[in-house]
Each structure stands twice: as structure tokens, then as C-alpha cells.
Amino acid sequence: MEKYLEVAIDAVKRAGEFLLKNFGSITLCHAEEKKANDFVSFVDRESERIIKERILSAFPDHKFLGEEEGGDLKCQGWLWIVDPLDGTKNFLHGIDAFSISCALLKDKDVKLGVVYLPAKGIIYTAQKGNGAFKNGKRIKVDNHQRIDLSLFATAFPFREKSKFEILAKIFGDLYLKFSDVRRIGSAAYDLCLTAEGVFSVFYEYGLSPWDIAAGSIIVEEAGGVVKDFEGGIGFLKTGNIVAGRSDAVDVVLDVIKKYWK
């Protein structure tokens, strides 16, 4: 797995260099709306091209699933899942909380994950069974702080605002159980902050596999758990995820069960 990790890190750093060259000069007026409230610009596409070219030149027999060009999540064998710019709206509005997410699956099982924040100079990595790291230093979920003193993170689905009413009820219950909430704007970064103990738990509805594949293994390797809204492990398929320290995940799932159908 070390060779795969080396190539993944090199690929996201090459793409990150490109993103930084354009950060602050590319704004919403340079982007197009793929779907309602879902924007893309040439930097998303070029970042994905850089990553895909680097990975497939090293591993030509592997498959690739990217946010912009697509691919097949169901395929067997080795599959790379990449979000070339997670937090596009942050990027377009000059907010430096954006990331690149890169995961490698073998027969649908996530084997490694890399999340890179080029504007912050931070890289998170994890390999199955080998722990999670931030800039080379091992990280762990925070299992010590009282839940009512801890932070949780979430976001509302900007592509599917019809779900806001039920999600607002879930949020309202949870807001009373935790100290406060944060909404970063990049699910991959949310998951990494959860893995290092900044948040006790992160949950969100309707994400895509490239948003969460890398972050999910980083949370798991940091000692956390990752579930879907039903308490199972189908989060890559459903896009509904609850991740963090186990007791906080249980709190969130209990509230979700009150409202979710």
C-alpha cells in the first residue's frame, strides 16, 4: 500500500499547486451551474485531470471515479475515488477551507484515504489497519470530552432543499445535546476534523462517494466509527453518513431514528 499512498500524495499535491495558483482569482462568475446550487469551474476539471493522469500513469489497470468525469462505484478490483475540489463554493468565494479527497478501494472496500488542504498546508492520510495521520503525526478521535461540551458538524443538502424540514428537526434536537455546531463547507475536511478530535461527530445527508470515501477511512483509522442513517455501513451507496466517536454517533443515530423514514 505504500506505493499507492506515495502516488496519491503526489497526485493531490500536484493538483493542489494548480488550485492555489487560481485561488482568489476564480470566482462564482467564472463557474457554471451543473445542477441547482451545484457549481463547477475549469479548476475542478483540471484538478481532476491532473490527479487522474498521475494515478493511471502509475497504475494503468486501475479504475477511476471522479466527481467531474464520473465512473462506476460498483466495479470490482482497484478503484480510485476522487473529489478534485471539495468545497467549490468556499473556493469560489475566497474561503480557504477547501480540500482534495482521494481514496483507493479494492473490491468496494476502502483501503486508503488522502485528504489535502492546499491553502492550509495540511494533509491527512490513512491506510487500512495502519492508523490515521495529519502531516505525518498520528491522530485519534476525542473519547474523553463530555458530549454536552463537544462540537458537532453538519450541513444541509443544497442540491435537495426539500429535505430541509425534516433535517431541521434532527438538527434542532441535536443542537440541544451538544455544546455548539460548525458548518465547514467541505465534507472531507469535516471528517478529518472529526478524526483528530475537533468535532465529536459529523453527519450529513445526500453526499456523493467522492465526498466521503477518503474521510471515512481516516475517521475509522483514528478510532471512530462510520455509519449510514440506518446504523449500517452503506454510507458510500446512500450518501447519508454519521461519523465520529462511537457514543456521539449513537446520540445522532437515536435522534435520526425519531424523524427519518
In short:
By secondary structure, the chain is an alpha+beta fold.
Structure overview:
The protein is globular and about 50 Å long. The chain is of the alpha+beta class and 261 residues long. Strands 3-4-5-6-7-8-9 form a seven-stranded mixed β-sheet, sandwiched between helices. It has a five-stranded mixed β-sheet with strand order 11-10-12-14-13, sandwiched between helices. The protein contains eight helices and 14 strands.
State the main characteristics.
alpha+beta, about 35% helix, 7-stranded mixed sheet, about 260 residues
Stretches where pLDDT is under 50 for at least 5 consecutive residues are none
Number of separate helices: 8
Structural class: alpha+beta
Shape: globular
Outline the biggest β-sheet: 7 strands, mixed
| Termini gap | 40 Å
Mean pLDDT equals 92
Rg, please?
A: 17 Å
Summarize the SSE layout with pairings.
Blueprint: H1 2-22, E1 32-35, E2 38-40, H2 42-58, E3 63-66, E4 78-86, H3 88-92, E5 99-106, E6 109-117, E7 122-127, E8 132-134, E9 137-138, E10 151-154, H4 164-175, E11 180-182, H5 187-195, E12 201-204, H6 209-221, E13 225-227, H7 235-238, E14 241-244, H8 246-259
Parallel strand pairs: 3-4, 10-11, 10-12
Antiparallel strand pairs: 1-2, 4-5, 5-6, 6-7, 7-8, 8-9, 12-14, 13-14
